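Sample pair:
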Amino acid sequence: MAHAIEVTGLTKHFGPVKAVDDLSFTVDEGRVTGFLGPNGAGKTTTLRMLLGLVNPTSGSATVHGQPFVTLSDPVHTVGAVLDGGMLHPGRTGRNHLRTLARASGIGDRRVDELMELVALREAANRRAGGYSLGMRQRLGLAAALLGDPKVLVLDEPANGLDPQGIRWLRDFLRRLAGEGRAVLVSSHVLAEVSQTADDVVVIAKGRSVTQGPLQEIMARSGRQGGVRVAGPDVRKLGDLLYADGARVSGDAHEITVADRTGEQVGRVIAQHQIVISELVPLGGSLEDVYFELTGATGGPS
């Protein structure tokens, strides 16, 4: 699996304030990566350094191995939405995209495809100044996709969306990742991130707190509780997992595995042809894990 984004030792000082402190993480192709942290944690500064809008004090941030400013064809490489996207309120949604497309040598056919893709076809000829916040977010997504890029960087894309819009966004991002794109999403909607992201990067005070596959992070947390397994062969399964260092409790009919994901337990089941009747993830939530890791008392940005 290739790293589409690589952040290495990224540091940014604004005078005496260290906004980002030796931050490193990767974003892989075909994966949605959630970027989480409290207000002032350094998320937006990190995204701006990645996109060449802010110069780092030290460290690097690259897309396909290159700094953004050296990309030969950035519009076809990276699509980004920061601050909801900028638009002229007097232009229609379609004309806003046409203006951006022509500046990049992209034809109107792509504009019409994207207005359909982000469910704005019916509003295409309305002035963008009259769009709701959610509609402006979708127009920003369309702008980010003009060049059909393989990497997307999105800052709070769910902001302003109603429940139906959030569900649409979830399916949309999963579809983009399914096409092989790398999607980096900064969000404060933790419940939605838990249903959308493959991986998460959690930062606090500019430093990495934890990062990795979401399910592994959830399983490692004491808040998560792992998985519950029932069936005729759970004693054998429990013995195998315990021998591998897992925290196992229960009896001959049902066990709880506190520090393994369902996928990890499932591999042991398949490898040893163990018969079970139930395998269920237990309790907890990304919100629980988030507050445990960051010690935040307010909501994340």
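The two ends are 30 Å apart (CA to CA).
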